[in-house]
Amino acid sequence: MNTLEFDSLYLEFGLHRVLSSIHMKCTTGQLVGLLGRNGSGKSCLMRIVLGTMKAESSSVRFNGKALVGDYIKQQRIAYLPQDDLLPSFVTFSQAVDLYQVDYSKIEKQFPDVKNFIRRKSSEVSGGQRRFFEALLLVYSSHPFCIMDEPFSGLMPIQVEKLMAILQEEKRNKGFIITDHLHRSIRSISDYLYVLTNGRTYKISSEEQLLELGYLSTI
Q1: Domains of the chain in sequence order
Q2: What contacts 216, CB < 8 A, 6 or more positions away?
Q3: Whole-prediction pTM value?
Q4: How far apart are CA 50 and CA 45, in angstroms?
Q5: Start-to-end CA span in the chain (Å)
Q6: Tell me: the pLDDT tens digits for 13-27?
């Protein structure tokens, strides 16, 4: 059982306060959803937690101990960015080796991958690339995985498939996921947060999403 927890994140750009009152926690066996409108600071929050962006203050703890530096390099957290994960010149087979993932697990969930496993990531459709990248991190050995817009570019059937895989694989790690498909995020999240006005709010009802202005109607 591992725990990733972060709070006391404070970030401002000039006179603009981006983050000020943040607290989130994820443990092995949990899928934590993070919702927020464009420009709410979700990407900044993730980059601070990952150790790739400095803030005025922050506290990120792994199993109760403070993390310092780039946590991706420390193999603590796998990160799926909103943009492409794999450089255009990397083949899918090279990516499997790089992340030290059992290829048979990916092929079992994504049989079509065998048709382009030797190709470069730039040589397949965006949906195929995105689905492969998500599976690559889901089956990595990192104890935690942060995913920014994992459903972007996927067909509905692929979204449903990935949701089921995430539910299955959370037995082995913790997930923090944000996506604009809020109904999908809400349906699979064990805990749900909304980031607005620089603060995170733990959500326990749909009415709160209305009150906080995330939804205009339920």
Answers
A1: 3-211 (3.40.50.300)
A2: 210
A3: 0.92
A4: 9
A5: 35
A6: 887 889 988 899 999
